[in-house]
Amino acid sequence: MPGDLFIRSARWKVAVVSAGLHILSSLRAGPSIRVVLNHAAPFGVRQKLERECMQSQLETMFERMGGRVRVRETFSRNRGIDIRSDKRGEYFDIGVEAADRVEYEVIDIRPRLKHLLLMARRDNGKQKFLCGHDERHWFVCAVPGASVSNVISAMEALQPSEVRAAVGRKVKRTKNRLRRRNEAFVRQGEWFFVPAPELSVNPKLVLRNEPISRGRGGKPHMCQFLYRTGGEPVYVCTRRPRGLPTSEYAALINSNPDAANWGWHQMRRNPLAYVSGRV
């Protein structure tokens, strides 16, 4: 490792993550469709025909972007959209409760880059999902914001605020704003790496081959060199995997002295993470 690795701050980048984020640039949209699935009545011929119609319509749209989709009846804990696999590979799985009245509408589709924007409309509101292919796998992620109306605005809504600010300052060409690499960031999956040329790091505080993860089952990325700063100190063990702030940890030990033997270790929640080298 070069001796000036940690002095030459231009080699460092700050990692910024957005939950569930995958983006690509897009092409012109195709037509949208709207299909309604009504299971409020007892199961019968009508419900079966509605399910078959929904399956057929969605299959047509997902096939346009090169994917597969399956609609199935399920329980509430499995309701929603997920990625599953079978002998033919990955596919989109839409679980609908028997009593759920839901309307699915494909708002925007970009076949060449394998992306579409799907909306689930229920009596209590709407929810939008960006479905597509990124790098090697299909993905689906919920999209925030009522103003999202197409694939492009969905991609932008999923960018962290720090990334959008950097894009606004540094990226002049509109067509470059959603690329994996531009003047503002390098994107790898759901992670954005923003250059931090002003950073100077103490080599003694640098971790080697350190994972970074969003938590909650997210797949970690391994970083050749990583430095963390800031954040909230928390105490973590197998019984408290999400961690306890210092005050809550002290209160727990005070009320239950045996808890001190649960194998705690100290970590930091929501720190800034700076990485260098291979990720």
Give your account of this protein's structure:
The protein has helices at about 45-65, 150-160, 160-170, 245-255, and strands at about 15, 35-40, 70-75, 80-85, 90-95, 100-110, 115-120, 125-135, 135-145, 185-190, 190-195, 205-210, 220-230, 230-235, 240-245, 265-270, 270-275. The protein is an alpha+beta fold and about 280 residues long. The protein folds into 2 domains: about 10-20 and about 195-275, no CATH class; about 35-160, no CATH class. The strands form 4 sheets. Strands 10-11-1-17-13-12 form a 6-stranded antiparallel β-sheet, covered by helices on one side.
Contiguous runs where pLDDT drops below 50 for at least 5 residues: 1-43
Q: N- to C-terminal separation?
A: 16 Å
Total tally of structural domains = 2
| Percent helix | 10-25%
Percentage of β-strand residues: 35-45%
Largest sheet: 6 strands, antiparallel
Integer-rounded radius of gyration: 23 Å
Going across the biggest sheet, name each strand in turn. Answer: 10-11-1-17-13-12
Helix and strand string, N-terminal first? EEHEEEEEEEHHEEEEEEHEE
Label the overall shape.
globular
**Structural class designation:** alpha+beta
DSSP helix count?
4
Query: Could you tell me the number of beta strands?
Result: 17
Main features:
279 residues, alpha+beta, 2 domains, 6-stranded antiparallel β-sheet, 4 helices, 17 strands
Task: Offer a concise description of the structure.
The protein has four helices and 17 strands. By secondary structure, the protein is an alpha+beta fold. It folds into two domains: 9-18 and 194-276, no CATH class; 33-158, no CATH class.
